[in-house]
Design goal:
Elements: H1 27-38, H2 68-71, H3 84-88, E1 105-106, E2 109-110, E3 115-123, E4 134-138, E5 164-168, E6 174-180, E7 185-186, E8 194-195, E9 198-204, E10 211-217, H4 228-231, H5 236-240, E11 245-246, E12 257-260, E13 263-264
């Protein structure tokens, strides 16, 4: 399997049998190999991958992004071994956490704003689908206000929009949900600072220690070139992976525009994920 060690010759004395034996991989690697043969891959699979260039991921401390100064570690990190609690529990599946894929209405009453469909595929760097991943989504309403008591932005709340969803990827790593296009909002990071329209994503693996968070943006937004959070990822090609693409195949005639947002979890082509 690509990425795993090839056969390693054993040390032997001259004249001894030159029979070779395959090196026994670590248990985690054997588990990954077995999953690969069976076509099963999850966020937790310990499959070797090419580590990303640091420029393709946002740093812990970004000079222009004020709150990172308060949240990022000031001292060297301590390595704490994960226990089974962090790596294997809880199991995030639809039987325990029911899916909710339509944010465009509450109790049958439609939310204000432009209805949209967001769909995509979650894979690893080699294109292997990540099946059964729980995807949490949250966003502001069409006026740019979150359904949260701490958001006191002077914009109207919509009683028919709660701004959160939960979906699971299928066997091919696909997901989709319905929402309304969020609005921009001020955030006081600097003078006249406005966040571009965006949707938050949280991906859950096999336990608490396997959660990845990112943001999806929309094409053509003039605020992208002014936003310290979006610009905190140095590499432009990596930043562009955070911008969704209009997709006519996802679009439903006379009902909603469709946007595609694919996510890659590991490797050089990984989607930028937040660390703080």
């Amino acid at each position: 399997m690509r990425g795993f060690p090839r056969r390693i010759p054993r040390l032997r004395s001259r004249g001894a049998s030159c029979r070779k034996r395959r090196a026994d991989p670590a248990p985690a690697a054997r588990s990954a190999q077995k999953a690969a043969r069976q076509g099963r891959h999850t966020v937790s699979d310990p499959i070797p991958y090419r580590r990303p260039d640091p420029a393709t991921q946002p740093p812990l401390d970004s000079p222009a992004y004020g709150s990172t100064h308060k949240r990022h570690p000031k001292q060297p990190l301590l390595r704490i071994p994960h226990t089974l609690t962090e790596t294997s529990a809880p199991r995030f599946d639809a039987s325990r956490y029911p899916a909710h894929a339509d944010m465009s209405q509450v109790n049958g009453k439609g939310a204000l704003g432009e209805r949209i469909i967001v769909a995509g595929r979650i894979t690893d760097e080699d294109g292997r689908p990540q099946r059964g991943v729980m995807v949490e989504v949250w966003q502001a309403n069409a006026s740019g206000r979150y359904h949260h008591p701490r958001d006191q932005h002077d914009a109207p709340l919509d009683p028919n929009f709660e701004g959160r969803a939960r979906i699971f990827t299928d066997d091919q790593g696909n997901y989709s949900f319905v929402s309304v296009k969020p609005g921009a909002y001020p955030w006081r990071n600097h003078w006249n600072a406005w966040r571009p329209i965006h949707i938050h994503f949280g991906l859950h693996g096999a336990g608490f220690a396997q959660r990845m968070i990112t943001q999806m943006y929309f094409p053509g937004d003039p605020l992208l070139d002014l936003d310290p959070i979006f610009l905190s990822t140095p590499d432009k090609a990596a930043r562009d992976r955070l911008i969704s693409k209009f997709d006519l195949e996802i679009t439903k005639p006379e009902w909603a525009l469709g946007y595609r947002f694919d996510m890659v979890l590991r490797g050089r082509e990984a989607t930028p994920f937040e660390k703080a």
